[in-house]
Specification:
With 199 residues, this protein is mainly α. The protein has 9 helices and 4 strands, in the order ααααβαββαααβα.
Length: 199
């Protein structure tokens, strides 16, 4: 299909074309993860995320804490591996509902704190955070709290909602959400006609 810069189409990796109303309707019908569903589960999401954030075990067997501990071990590596990725869980949650999830979690758990010894400079952190190692990362790199929110909090929240919606175990829900994730590099190759499947 030939396109110009004004009508470029980005296809979703789950195979549903957002420019096609019937396709969008089909995608919407496949999931009940909407604003009402999110609002119904937000308290349990917040509690689950708080348990994860405050886990400081050096050897933790909780599958739900894997991203959290990977971030603590190497926040720079997690940033490098994820900052150009998007569409995590796109098969299960529509963009407008994902934005609502991001907004409501931002209001419920995010906070700006003053850097130690400063009355002007702040850093991004989270309410009820009781994990000194994680807090130190945020203090040392004041914007890293935003990255933790994007790469850990939001992905775990989407996975939690998929578990609630589908009844699938955590590991399978997380794997399915990861399968819809794409990178900017993949998108570029698609536009150049070099990628063998649609996003």
């Amino acid at each position: 299909m030939e396109t110009n810069s004004e009508d470029t189409v980005i296809h979703r990796q789950d195979g549903y074309d957002n420019t096609n109303p019937s396709s969008r309707q089909s995608s919407t019908n496949r999931s009940e993860i909407n604003t009402d569903f999110i609002a119904k589960h937000v308290n349990s999401i917040v509690n689950t995320l708080a348990d994860m954030m405050n886990c400081s075990l050096s050897k933790c067997d909780e599958a739900e804490h894997k991203r959290h501990h990977e971030f603590i071990r190497s926040p720079e590596k997690m940033y490098a591996d994820n900052y150009l990725k998007y569409c995590f869980g796109a098969k299960y949650i529509e963009p407008e509902d994902f934005e609502y999830l991001q907004q409501i979690l931002g209001e419920r758990i995010c906070v700006n704190k003053f850097l130690p010894g400063s009355i002007f400079s702040r850093y991004s952190s989270f309410k009820n955070l009781d994990n000194e190692e994680l807090e130190k990362i945020f203090i040392d790199s004041p914007l890293m709290g935003h990255e933790y929110f994007k790469f850990v909090i939001l992905k775990e929240a989407v996975t939690y909602l998929v578990c609630c919606n589908t009844g699938l175990p955590y590991e399978e829900s997380d794997e399915r959400c990861s399968q819809t994730e794409a990178s900017v590099a993949q998108h570029k190759r698609v536009q150049e006609g070099c990628f063998p499947f649609n996003l």
